[in-house]
Amino acid sequence: MHIAVCDDNIADRKQTERLLGRQSDRFFKEMGERLYIDSYGNVEAFLRYPQMYDGLFVDMTLEEPTGFEIVKLLLKDGVVRPIILCVSKIDYRKQYEESGLDIPNLMFIDKPLKVAELSAMMDKIREIKGDPIPTLEIRGKDGTFYAKEDDIVFVKKHGSELLIHIADGQVISLIDEIYNFYSQCEVFPQICPISDYTLINVNHVKKTSFGKVTLDNGETFGVSFAYRNSIAQAREIISNKSKES
Q: What pTM value is reported for the model?
């Protein structure tokens, strides 16, 4: 597993590294696994590749952005793995409660870190890692979006661009061929082609009729004859995967 530590208190950061090193020894002894630990003292470096980590320990208190604001930045960057706020000078639990946000896999641990609590936290991170949430990195013209589950509603070819319509109303534009983008959507069996120019998410289908499909956002598309069985096939794959799990 890959773990990141972002802490602007040097002594605390070194102590967290040391305790995580002990957890690495425990994991290797019990399961034959090692932890790979990267440590950061500044936010800019920490936010460079946050998606690569299975767990992220954060406590930044000396300057903005502080810990809970960093959590929001991580979520914006598409991080879905556990984020652990280490509570010291700032009461992150209170900030989270007052925010009104619902953030899956956000956890809290108090400083100074206790071995038993850290061990339980690492076991939880490993448990979550065993059930990953598929994501697709979409590098649009205006930035990168990390699509999860049913974020993508449909994709339409428009000239040299693909217009990717997201459930929250965003439209992401990128230069790509639709067949290439479809191959990248392998992690999402609910995405299927209905023409040479259109992909849809079958979980967003509201109604189908002869040669047409209507999505839950009101969009209606024609289904090319060559793709007449695509929706049924995608639904069958989803059903089989559900039975397997």
A: 0.61
Strands 143-148 and 135-140: antiparallel
Strands 171-175 and 161-166: antiparallel
Give the closest residue to 87 by CA, choosing from 115, 103, 68: 68
Task: Report residue 53 as tokens.
Answer: 């980590």
Coil/strand/helix, residue 102: coil
Best CA proximity match to 127, nearest among 31, 40, 7: 31
- CB atoms inside a 10 Å sphere around CB 42: 11
3-state SS of 13-43 is HHHHHHHHHHHHHHHHHHHCCCCEEEEECCH
Beta-sheet strand order (sheet of 36-40) = 36-40, 2-7, 55-59, 83-87, 106-110
**What confidence tens digit (pLDDT) does each residue in 1-10 have?**
899 999 999 9
